[in-house]
Amino acid sequence: MAVLDASAVLAVTFAEAGAEAVAPELPNATLSAVNLSEVYGRIIRRGGDIEPIPDFLERYDIEVVPFDEELAEITAKLIPATRSHGLSLGDRACLALALQRGLPVMTADRAWRDLDLGVEIRLIR
User: Fold this and answer.
1) N or C: which end of the chain has fewer CB within 10 A?
2) Closest of 89, 90, 77 to residue 118, by C-alpha
């Protein structure tokens, strides 16, 4: 099991580099609702159709986790450790979920490579 960053889902969705690293982790993966919103947004900005995404999530039994008060607090507490790396709210929400669940996180975002947050970060490319 792993927490997926939006970039990992998008790599699979658009058959980009790194998709082969993400594919084996899809069954039973976890995704923050914040990152799902990023996935939808990127697809829409590219002129794509978001209609297949719910079926994709169901097919792989990907759990979409609501962004609740606890995750909001963990996400905010990551600001000091991530500020110099330029991480977004979505990035921190993904990392917060990984910390909360004690799971590794998969991302294409190389800015995460040097983070030391107590969570395993798996770069997909």
Assistant:
1) N
2) 77
Q: Please enumerate in sequence order all residues whose Cβ is within 8 A of that of 118, keeping only pairs 6 or more positions apart, or say none.
A: 99
Residue ranges per domain, the chain?
A: 7-123
Q: Burial, 103: exposed, middle or buried (Cβ in 10 Å; 0-12, 13-18, 19+)?
A: middle
**Tokens linked to 5:** 């960053």
Q: Kindly report, residue by residue over 93-106, the tens digit of the pLDDT.
A: 999 999 999 999 99
CA distances (Å), origin 1, targets 31, 73, 89, 121, 125: 11, 23, 23, 13, 19
| CATH architecture of the domain formed by 7-123 | 3-Layer(aba) Sandwich (3.40)
Among 32, 37, 21, 28, residue whose Cα is nearest residue 2: 28
pTM above 0.90, yes or no: yes
